TrEMBL record:
<comment type="similarity">
    <text>Belongs to the tectonin family.</text>
</comment>
<dbReference type="InterPro" id="IPR051513">
    <property type="entry name" value="Tectonin_beta-prop"/>
</dbReference>
<dbReference type="Pfam" id="PF19193">
    <property type="entry name" value="Tectonin"/>
</dbReference>
<dbReference type="InterPro" id="IPR006624">
    <property type="entry name" value="Beta-propeller_rpt_TECPR"/>
</dbReference>
<keyword id="KW-0430">Lectin</keyword>
<protein>
    <recommendedName>
        <fullName>Fish-egg lectin</fullName>
    </recommendedName>
</protein>
<dbReference type="GO" id="GO:0030246">
    <property type="term" value="F:carbohydrate binding"/>
</dbReference>
Length: 238
């Protein structure tokens, strides 16, 4: 089994199928929502119920307390500043803006980084290897190339690297996302969705019965955004 399940639940929410198709989506700071289109990697944000295209091209975008960040097809990093994408030193294949003030992410070699400090700061290299990394206000979670799940505790606005001691969490996921209120959602290699049912440190996971296979999920403030394996967009309001 992909995860050791203690429970499962059928999702009870108002499900809205949002027009369009995306390969990746992120919702964060005050339910701001950004996504990346599959083919041309165009960037969209949800404004007044409609998708609005933003200039530029990215393969991954993230929004949260650290701002709006993204990486392009060549792994170059950008930060959205007053409507313009400003290049930032370094290269990452995936970036996350969910930390208090510090973005974090992983590069093409699965090395893990976080950015402590403001303009001109350098990326801090964390120990270990992860293919996907996501941060909340007090901890960061990640999955490695074997889909094993890890948590880094002790993450603060002054210490983006946390305790530097990884703790393995039971189960297997291919991607994982932490919301600003500490809830944890993830998707396994079979396209099944899971949530931690005792955050911030899970005693286990439960499968979320969604009715179709998914490939990406993001949650914040009662909104669970889901990208199906067919790239369809769904907003589930609990």
């Amino acid at each position: 089994a992909e995860l050791e399940l203690g429970k499962s639940r059928r999702l009870r929410c108002i499900l809205l199928v949002v027009p369009g198709s995306l390969k990746q989506i992120d919702v964060g700071e005050r339910t701001a929502c950004f996504g990346v289109e599959l083919q041309a990697m165009e960037i969209f944000t949800l404004y007044s119920g409609a998708w609005t295209r933003i200039s530029g091209s990215l393969k991954h975008v993230s929004v949260g307390p650290a701002g709006v960040w993204g990486v392009n097809a060549n792994n170059y990093i950008y930060r959205l500043d007053n409507g313009d994408w400003v290049p930032v030193n370094g290269q990452l294949k995936q970036v996350d803006a969910g930390g208090t003030v510090s973005p974090a992410g992983v590069n093409m070699f699965d090395d893990i980084f976080c950015l402590q400090g403001g303009e001109g700061a350098s990326w801090t290299n964390l120990p270990g290897k992860l293919k996907y990394y996501s941060c909340g206000l007090n901890s960061c979670w990640g999955v490695n190339s074997g889909n094993l799940i890890y948590i880094m505790k002790g993450v603060t606005s002054n210490t983006c690297a946390g305790s530097l001691k990884w703790e393995q969490v039971s189960g297997y996921l291919s991607m994982i996302e932490v919301s600003t209120d500490g809830k944890v959602y993830g998707v396994n290699s079979n396209g099944d969705m899971y949530e931690s049912y005792s955050p911030p440190i899970p005693a286990g996971w439960r499968q979320v019965q969604f009715g179709q296979k998914v490939k990406h999920v993001s949650y914040d403030l009662g909104h669970l955004w889901v990208i199906g394996t067919d790239n369809s967009i769904m907003d589930c309001t609990e």
